[in-house]
Amino acid sequence: MQRYVPAPGLENKAAFIDGLIARMTLDEKIGQLRLISIGPEMTKARIYDEIAAGRIGATFNTVTSAENRPLQEAAALRSRLRIPVTFAYDIVHGHRTIFPIGLGLASSWDMEVVRQSARVAAAEAAADGIDMTFAPMVDISRDPRWGRMSEGFGEDPFLVSEIARASVRGLQGDSLAAPDSIMAVAKHFALYGAVEGGRDYNTVDMSPMRMYNDYLPPYRAAIEAGAGGVMVALNSINGVPATSNTWLLRDLLRGQWGFKGLTVSDHGAITELMQHGVAGDPREAARLAVEAGVDLSMADSIYLEQLPQLVRSGTVREQTLDAAVREVLGTKYDLGLFHDPFRRIGDAARDPADADAEERLHRAEARAVARESMVLLENRNGALPLRKGARIALVGPLADAPIDIMGSWSASGKFKHSVTLLQGMREAVAAQGGQLRHARGANATDDARIVEYLNFMNWDMPEVVQDQRPAEAMIAEAVEAARQSDAVVAAVGETRGMSHESSSRTSLEIPASQRALLAALKATGKPLVLVLMNGRPLALGWERDNADAILETWYTGTEGGHAISDVLFGDVNPAGKLPITFPRSVGQIPQYYNHLRIGRPFTEGQPGNYTSQYFEEPNGPLYPFGYGRSYTDFSVSDVALSADTLERGGTLSASVAVKNTGQRAGATVVQLYIEDPAASVARPVKELKGFRKLMLQPGEEQVVRFAVGEEQLRFFNARLEQVAEPGRFNVQIGLDSRDVKQRSFELR
Ligand code: BGC
Question: Structural domain boundaries of the chain?
Answer without folding.
Answer: 90-336, 374-574, 634-747
